[in-house]
Amino acid sequence: MRIVLPSNHPQASLRSVSLASLAGETFIEFPRAIGPGLHDSIIAACQRAGFSPILGQDAPQISSTVHLVAAGFGISIVPQSIEQIHADGIVYVGIKGEAPRAPISVAIRKDNRAATVRNFVSSARHSHAAQ
Q: pTM here?
């Protein structure tokens, strides 16, 4: 996970920031109704850091959060893959300490015997167990 900050934010020049240092900021989040696992993970991480985030504008899509931050509506925490979205007026920074995790699920048909599917599921299970 990464933090998206406006490029003029006081912490924008840092490589990483603690979640606790963001208490008092307005958070732009993906709607809980659409992504409860991600939403709850971010809220819980903030609470473990000692604060309840101030929730601002909901982003209609996870990728929209970047543009809402660029427009000055607040800050956000997004999956690292979103860092591929480049926009003027924002920076991505790492999270010091315990970061929220984005839950991912895999569903397969029981009768699927394809080696690629078995290998993918095995790899995903191994990766999850290693964490």
A: 0.79
Q: Which domain holds residue 41?
A: 2-96
Number of domains in the chain: 1
Longest dimension (CA), the chain: 54
Task: Read off the pLDDT of residues 8-34 as tens digits, 9 standing for 90 and up.
Answer: 999 999 999 999 999 999 999 988 888
Residue 107 in tokens:
């569903």
The domain that contains 6 carries what CATH number? 3.40.190.10
The residues, any chain, with a CB within 8 Å of residue 120's CB and separated by 6 or more, are 106
Question: Hey, what are 39's tokens?
Answer: 């939403």
**H-only helix segments in 9-63:** 36-48
Q: CA nearest 93: which of 83, 101, 102, 103?
A: 83
The amino acid at 49: A
Beta bridge partners of 5: 91
The answer to the question of residue 45 being in a domain is: yes
